[in-house]
Design goal:
This protein is α/β, with parallel strands linked by helices. 38% of the residues lie in helices and 18% in strands.
Length: 424
Amino acid sequence: MRHIADIRARQVLDSRGNPTLEVDCILNDRTLGRASVPSGASTGSFEALELRDKDESKYLGRGVLQAVDNVNTIICDRLVGMSATDQYRIDRALLELDGTPNKSRLGANAVLGASLAVCRAATMTAELDIYRYLGGAGTKYLPVPLLNIINGGAHSSNNLDVQEYMVVPAGFDSFADALQAATEVYQHLRLLLEDAGMNTTIGDEGGFAPNFDNDEEPLEFALRAIEKAGYKPGEQIYLALDVAASEFHKNGHYSLTNPADRRMTVDGLIDQYESWINKYPIISLEDGLAEDDWKAWKTLTERLGKRVQLVGDDLFVTNVERLRKGIDENVANAVLIKPNQIGTVSETLDCIKVAVDHGYRTVISHRSGETTDHFIADLAVATNAGQIKTGAPCRGERVAKYNRLLRIEEHDQLGYAGLSTLKR
């Protein structure tokens, strides 16, 4: 039996230049498993707590040295000697150590870093890839990527209310072909923006981030880019939106700023989404309403749930209890899965299982502050999630996940999920 000999954490930098944790798990056979923890900019209020030092003299208060110390002392003392291959027992020990509903004692970043590092060490000592270790013989296919080609909202400094405009290359026979198509669309979009005299600087997730005349204009550019690249919108490549509506939900209203300051009712906002869906090949809508606006979500689901995928991110925060509430109330039809929203590998797997058992789709997701750790790529394959959202085909921390999926496809010759997990 391979047991844990040591757990060590350090402070490193994420893709936004903010500190985060990197954790090493060393086993008694000297196997080293290393993992790093991402961080979100647009975060749900119900996410597990990311512990920051708040010492303004260092990294503008964003340091994670306390979380590092928690790994090196409290967590290390508890996990040393435990079997690295018993992930659920490891994660239960972490939950007991923290003892709070939202990981506020040790920090979700400390807990997740340890959980991920143990998982990776276990796979290495077993001489298995993570996707085979977690998924076994049941792994079937590569996920459809939802690539963020235009950034707005909290992911950029432009004037867009909508946070992400994505292309979804679902109409292909392989992941490699799908990624090629989406990348070509991304490059043609850059040329179209340049021709229009717009800047092509990029946002946190690699998408272009110029100002636009209104929130619909990016959809028009995306459609033109698909056609310019030689692909068929609504047949080979679709569109998706992450509205992140919690970011502009204020005092019971939805306050938008583009093209002008205005307050919108729930019905007005849903009307806007419906008009876009009628006009563009939109196949998925994420966080169209605020994280605790349950009544409005029910209305949205009744009106649009049979036409598009409705993804809950801030609504569910990878939390089984909140997801069960959504299932009971018939709210949304898909859940975004972010391990750092909940804090352990086991809890992440539990949330995916509950979703699948109740017919909800799952979309494995990155965060805006990422690292080159490709765990979520393996997770998407292991769980047959069918969809992954990890940014533009640009920036090393984003393409690390896509390149990992290319290697898995080549190595295991798995199929491609395609439209099977998206079409209703």
